[in-house]
Amino acid sequence: GNALTFDFPVKYKKVIGATSQRVVREADVSLIQPFIEAAGELEQEGVSAVTTSCGFLAVFQEHLAAAVDVPVFSSSLLQIPMAYRMLKKGQKVGIMTASKPHLTQLHFKGAGAGHIPMVVYGMEKEEEFPEVFLNQKETLDVPKAEHEMIRVAQTMVKENPDIGAIVFECTNMPPFRDSVQRVVQLPVFDIVTLTNYVFHSLGINNINF
Predict the structure, then answer these.
(1) Which of 1, 29, 48, 154 is the residue whose CA sits 20 to 30 A from 182?
(2) Cα separation of 22 and 120, whole Å?
(3) What is the value of pTM for the model shown?
């Protein structure tokens, strides 16, 4: 949500009604058309690629990509195949998500990762993170949320020592990437790493996202 995250110009388009309840918990297919319309408007405004603000929108990837003539990457989960191919045989990709019960095989299929060995851990049982990013609490205790992220990552890696890389599903997790990397000593991918990767792949100066 902060344009200063990126060192290139970005544009934002709000999809009215796309709440965490409808996107994460319900996977509401009636949102496909509003997202298509938003992507189309961004394309008309001159953006060179389109992303979204929730990893759960991987289920809409095919629909969004077909609707516009610029690259679309709906979810950080699109990085799972790449992360897996980096690993040695027998290793898995660890997924950290806002809500494990709602992250299904349909989301992984949408990201092209349906058959990749992975382990999924969620933040839904924590205190601060889900209250803010799932239940719309308006203030965030940043140190507390950071501690929760680190604890979940450490638990995931300790219980699954065959994890070789981590992918953050949630768009609100990147501020904690450095802290998690420092503790688990593994590659960590998120929507920011993917957005930067796409930007550099375009090879264009002064473009918008």
Answers:
(1) 1
(2) 21
(3) 0.91
